[in-house]
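In keeping with the milestone schedule agreed at the kick-off meeting, the structural modelling team has produced records for the first pair of proteins. Each record is given below as a sequence line and a structure-token line. The laboratory manager (R.T.) confirmed that both were archived under the project's standard naming scheme.
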Amino acid sequence: MDSTVADFYRQTTEEIPLVDLAHDTDLADIFNVPKRQKNGARPATDFLREHRKTIADKIAYWTGMQRPVIKRLLESIENRSAELKLRADSRRDSEHLAEISVYAAALAMNHMSKEKGRSKQP
């Protein structure tokens, strides 16, 4: 059976444990749009989807983590944000972008340090 590069990456990324899911309180803090301003805000998932490639590229560049794992992390953050019905205030786009980028990078680094610790165990 012939295997494609896409099959290889799909299999490889499915074997890698998903980075710890983002905590609801952290996401709610990042996208903390006051109730009176929710009408002028868009779904956080739209904001996250719009910036996913840039965030993933920068996290991969600065951490050395595999891009498919970062993509799975960001997709899990998007999915959880949708479930929580979080909203992004367009007047605070740069703040949201900085916070979610740093937060996702911290989750990625935490995951990498856990994986490194596991590989050292006998």
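The second protein of the pair:
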Amino acid sequence: MREALVLLRFSGVFASEPMEKLLRSAVANAENNHDMSSDGLFITRVTVDGGPGGGITKRLDPRAQGRAAFKRKRLSHVTIAVGAEAPKHQPRSAPAPAISLKTRVQRQTQAATTKPAAPRRKKKAAAAAGASA
């Protein structure tokens, strides 16, 4: 728990201050309401959901020539769950790249085994238009 608070404290992200406040509140609730020790707590789940009313508050923004445009101010609900046991699964790692990175030898052997593509033919309409010009 202390590691998460230190990371949030020294993070340069704008949302780190409200997230730190929310984490401290979750720890205090666990201590007071469920008689848990703050030393042995782990973050078990963090979820961010859309806020009320579709998650958007509309505000008007004055524009040129007497017009107005909508500003969409997004809302969200953040939920942090803490528990005495460490989470059972590890956090997800970055997904593997969709494109396979082949070595130079693999590319050369693949090019040697496949037959070359047939040369492209010019379209007749384009050739006729070029001849008349």
